Amino acid sequence: MNQLRIATYNLRYANDKDTGNLWVDRSPVVINLIRFHDFDILGTQEGVKAQLDDISTPLHYYQRFGVARDDGKEAGEHSAIFFKTEKFKLIKGGNFWLSEKPQSPGLGWDAKHNRLCTWVELEIKDNQEKIFVFNAHFDYHGVKAREESSRLVLENITEIAAGRDSEENKLIDHIFVTRHFKVNKYGILTDTYFSKVPSDHFPVVVDLITGQ
Predict the structure, then answer these.
(1) Which of 13, 32, 93, 194 could form a cystine bridge with 120, CB 3.0-4.6 A?
(2) How many degrees, rounded to 5, is the angle at CA 69 between CA 19 and CA 117?
(3) Distance CA 161, CA 156 (A)
(4) For the whole model, what pTM was predicted?
């Protein structure tokens, strides 16, 4: 049994039109937010490689997993997963696109952008317990794309994670858990700086106990 702090955070991509709130201004706040709240595992959305590198450099005690959505390498936004190396060992991981052809980059259904899901299987070093983490970013434009993406993600969870089922809620940004975890507490982090927000989304965090 382990207690874990899990979070999801849409970073907002580094848009050079965000006058007065550019990534160069926001990035130290994002980094300090992650450091202060001390997440064990963090799923991010919208971050491009340069942004993720900016986070990885000072927060070197996290390992990062995931590829970019446009070429399966470094081009475009990621749905990256960060996890603490002192607590977890990476067993395996992968990526699939939210489309009719999930094994290669491309648009799905009525989506406006390529979307993908990144997943990892982690071993908790203290007791060798294994957990799966899936991180996806659905398309805001395509209604059918969101519906079909949900089905595809659930199908892959069933296949990859050997039938573990998800619980649902109605938040825009959310963390789904299975019955194998107990939720101690959860919340939305509204950290600001100089009356500005470090992203156009707030992180969602949950403290879990494994082995339930």
Answers:
(1) 93
(2) 110
(3) 8
(4) 0.89
At 187, list the tokens: 């919340």
Distance of CA 119 to the CA centre of its chain: 9
Helix (H) or strand (E) holding 62: strand 62-65
Measured CA to CA, the distance from residue 127 to residue 134 in angstroms comes to 22
Instruction: Give yes or no for a contact between 147 and 138, defined as CB atoms under 8 angstroms apart.
Output: no
Is pLDDT above 80 for 170? Answer: no
Lookup: tokens for 73? 């390498």
Whether pLDDT at 84 is above 70: yes
Give residue for tokens 């989506």.
111
What domains can you pick out in the chain, each with its CATH number?
3-209 (3.60.10.10)
Pair of tokens at residue 78: 């990621």
φ/ψ of residue 151, rounded to 5? -60, -45
Instruction: Please measure the distance between the N-terminal and C-terminal CA atoms of the chain and give it in whole angstroms.
Output: 8
